[in-house]
Amino acid sequence: MVLPSSFLRLFSLPGFRLRDSEQRHTSRVRHAMLSLLQVHGGHGVQRVAQRVRFAGDLEALWYLRQDMMSALSELDGEAAARRQLHPINSMFKGRLPDTMGPRPHQRFNM
Q1: Which residues contact 53 (CB under 8 A, 6 or more apart)?
Q2: pLDDT tens, position by position, for the chain (110 residues)?
Q3: What is the pTM of this model?
Q4: Based on the number of CB atoms within 10 Å of its own CB, is 51 exposed (0-12), middle (13-18) or buried (19 or more)?
Q5: Has residue 50 been placed in a domain?
Q6: What is the full DSSP assignment across 22-41?
Q7: What pLDDT sits at residue 25?
Q8: Is residue 64 one of the residues assigned to a domain?
Q9: Domain of life, per the record (predicted)?
Q10: In whole angstroms, what is the distance from residue 104 CA to residue 66 CA?
């Protein structure tokens, strides 16, 4: 006998819904990253796209942003790459530990 999924949801584990939400968000971030890379061609971009495709979690995607920045900078320049990555960067806000977020740069005064 097969039970409808709506019925099974009533008996789901408390953490399951949170985990499912995290997986859906990771999928949305991955899709946004791949969509941006798809617009560009070249071996470097395709190599990064392959790594994005197989990244295991949101943390791995966070670290791949630098590789995307490098690949896109070579094609469009750094300023354009930063503009293109800005929407993707905002998708990570509040989803990673504070220690993994961008750090403010401080100037040293001597």
Answers
A1: 30, 34
A2: 544 544 445 454 554 555 668 899 999 999 999 999 998 888 889 999 999 999 999 999 999 999 999 999 999 999 999 999 999 999 998 877 665 655 565 666 65
A3: 0.71
A4: middle
A5: yes
A6: HHHHHHHHHHHHHHHHHTS-
A7: 92
A8: yes
A9: Bacteria
A10: 17
SS3 (DSSP) at 100: helix
Q: Quickly tell me which residue has 């899709």 as its tokens.
A: 31
Tell whether 104 is covered by a domain: no
Q: By residue range, what is the domain housing residue 78?
A: 23-93
Inter-residue contact 25 to 59 (CB < 8 Å)? no
Count of the separate structural domains present in the chain: 1
Residue 61 has which token pair? 């995607």
